[in-house]
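Quick question: what would this complex look like in 3D?
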Amino acid sequence: MNGSTTYFPASRPWTEEGSAVRLHGSKCAHCGVAAFPPHPSCPDCGAENGQDTVRLSPVGTLYTFCEIHIAPKGFATPYAVGYVDLPEGVRLFGQIEGRAADLRLGQQVAVMLGLVRADGSGGAVVSYKFRGLP
Amino acid sequence: MTLAAIAGVGMTKFGKQAERTIEDLGREALVRAMKDAGIARDGIAEVFCGSSYGGPLIGQRILRDLGMTGIPITNVENACSSGAAALREACWAVKAGRADAVAVLGVEKLTRLGGGTLPLEPTDVEVNLGNVMPAVYAMRARRYMHETGATARHLAMVAVKAREYGARNPNAQFRNRITVDDVMASRMVADPLTLYMCCPTGDGAAAAIVTSERRARELGARPVRVEASVLQSGLYKTGFRDMASSELTERTSRLAYEAAGIGPRDVSLAEVHDAFASAELMYYEALGLCRKGEGAAMIERGDSGPGGRQPVNPSGGLACRGHPVGATGVAQIVEAVWQLRGEAVERQVPGARVALTHCTGGGISGLDHGACAVHVLAS
């Protein structure tokens, strides 16, 4: 990779606690619905305030996944992606380390930070992604 | 409740037509539809043009060279449902009494985007992390297979059935028959979806002339009635939702059946949004054409194929007729009208009386789909 590293989202809504990565979501003080990335207003009840920051669990459950073989410029194929359900009631999309053949539905996966793609000038884009737990 | 009549339809051949302009494709479809309806250009009071990647003022760019300017022209973008959403606007413009003859266009030229997967909105969070349309469907397919026991070979059967119909459709992008083994051996796009389980990119246009019932009779056409025209959007969920079924398609089709006063058993044929083979099985269920979890059994029995109990996508569908995104919803209407007039020749569904068309699409984080449209047509 040439060029500098950038982050997605640029606000880097996460904290690292040792090897654990906790994403910062929002949780509505009125109806309790959680969201990630954090929302300025509640996507469920519509409340325009009271969206508290919540640190989401570092481990979730793999709802479904696939392996992508044809992708836009900047992504190195093949790569696995999936939807991960966190205990706070948030479903996240993200890339998963390794090959899809090693994954199974219902598996526990951990949130991590890593390279997701190259930007237009060849710089690394780092974001949250997942790795399978045994 | 009858909304409007369709007095004429027309379309271009679908497929890669890099040498033609999108305006040229649109003009061909519209002229064919106006000739079919027997209506002159000054008889068209209003135009709705659906396109997702056609760029600004696509309708005006098409109509300019036909000398059909000055009238209200509205361009409609709603991803894969652009053409179907344009049709809905036309139907309600007629129903409201605002116009008695409206032209609807669906146009797209995807070859100008280059190859590969469709470009999606760069502000979308999932797009930034590497999501593409085939992956959206592949992930749903894996969950669907997990929950219903459907296998990759069932998905392949859908692709084979599509080609069987497409071989009988002169406007289809693909005209060759293939086998389950061919489908399984084609290259992997997003597992479990292989290339032949994915709709192709291509170019094309389709048009329909929507009129009041009275105007259709005056034109002496053999009108087809529009009995329902329903558009819905997906519900945004930040949490868990069932990806092995389509809530959006279930909701939209339920509203359409209610509006038309019919049920799934009354449908002679359906044109459904089979962007990927797995989706067709899920939509059999969501549209009520079979019971929950029985999509695989339906394709295995041959119910949805030629000579089957309830033919689906006799045009070849998106998989085979092709999917120039914004044109698809109107192309489905063209097929439905030909079927209901008994003009579909080799692929004619015998005794077709009621046709359902279903468009759904648009990759957007947190929504089942961006937009879904269902139309019910009757002879």
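Answer marked as accepted. The mean pLDDT of chain A is 94.
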